[in-house]
Amino acid sequence: MQLIEEKKIERDFPASARYLIGVSGGRDSVALLHWLVDLGYEKLIVCHLNHQLRGQSSDADARFVEKLAGKYQVDFELGAANVRALAKKKKMSIETAAREARYSFFAKAAKRHRCHTIFLAHHADDLVETLLINLFRGAGSAGLVAIRESSTRRIDDVELTIVRPFLPVWRKEIDSYVREHRLRFREDATNKNLNPLRNRVRHRVIPYLEKMLGRNIRLTISRAATIAGEDEAWMDNQLPDSTDADSPAAAAPAEAALSVAKLRALPIALQRRAILKWLRAQKISELGFDVIERVRSLADRDARVAKVNLPKDRPVRRRAGRIFLE
Question: Which of 1.20.59.20, 1.10.10.10, 1.10.1740.10, 3.40.50.300 would CATH assign to domain 240-325?
């Protein structure tokens, strides 16, 4: 895994500090744990969430990760969530519910251990797949960023820094690392199930595109994501606060309303970006162009409606110069 800048990781995140690390038991997270321990990260807290989706196999995954933490003599944090019930309750996909449950678990672990930085094992192939999925859903340039090597995410009242050291690394390189070090891991049989969109993109869409175009498209797409990320960072710095400063909720971004006047004063590109940022703070998932435009229409001077519905029947309303989620 020659593409990882080990010195940069160690400089930005010194090995002497404490960190959380998400470990599912699969090859990617097992490789990341081994790599970090090998670099001298001795104060890791291994975090594993049992999604309760695969019965005894899920329980076996948890036991495997706990033993792995014991082998490396690092702390272990175990959580459990009924993801299927959560998906049904919130009217979202299993994949989205699982992601929300994981980050909620990570945030609670961060608060409990007073450690707000977590290492995750996303890699270059994940980046390519996520970018394509976002593109197919109609995401704008923000969706083309897909995944960042380092980002900050607010979950409830916790500010969590997410670090992905393997993002420049391809799946085949991780496979080689696992073989070289003879690492044991848990194979998730659901990865071959073609019902989840990500698996269809991974096993059908990307191979088909590469066959049809006669070239490896993964590297090209990852470069596009890198360029988009740099553009996004600049654009974010240009974005003023569009929340309603007079609203009591303005101090809490997750609850703040959007100011219609401030929104109208922005160029259209920044309007969309402000709405996207606001909706993410409201924990609205699967955001595409249509959803953003629906909310943006409420700020139109000629708008005849003062209410629009988001997916899963979440209403957004305009009243007294404010746009808010009901």
Answer: 1.20.59.20
| pLDDT tens, N- to C-terminus, the chain (326 residues) | 555 667 788 889 999 999 999 999 999 999 999 999 999 999 999 999 999 998 899 999 999 999 999 999 999 999 999 999 999 988 888 888 999 999 999 999 999 999 999 999 999 999 999 889 888 877 666 666 668 888 888 887 899 999 999 999 999 999 999 999 999 999 877 777 888 888 999 999 999 999 999 888 999 988 888 888 777 777 777 766 655 544 333 333 445 789 999 999 988 888 888 888 888 777 776 677 888 888 999 998 888 888 898 877 788 999 999 999 88
Say how many residues make up the chain: 326
Tell me the CA distances in angstroms from 152 to 117, 126, 155, 243, one per residue in order: 9, 19, 10, 20
Give me the long-range contacts of 146-155 (CB less than 8 A, separation at least 24).
146/225, 146/228, 147/122, 147/225, 148/229, 150/12, 153/103, 154/253, 154/254, 154/281, 155/103, 155/104, 155/106, 155/107
Please give the C-alpha separations between residue 107 and each of 280, 296, 300, in angstroms, as whole numbers. Answer: 16, 31, 37
As assigned by CATH, the class of the 6-124+137-189 domain is alpha beta
Residue boundaries of the structural domains of the chain: 6-124+137-189, 240-325
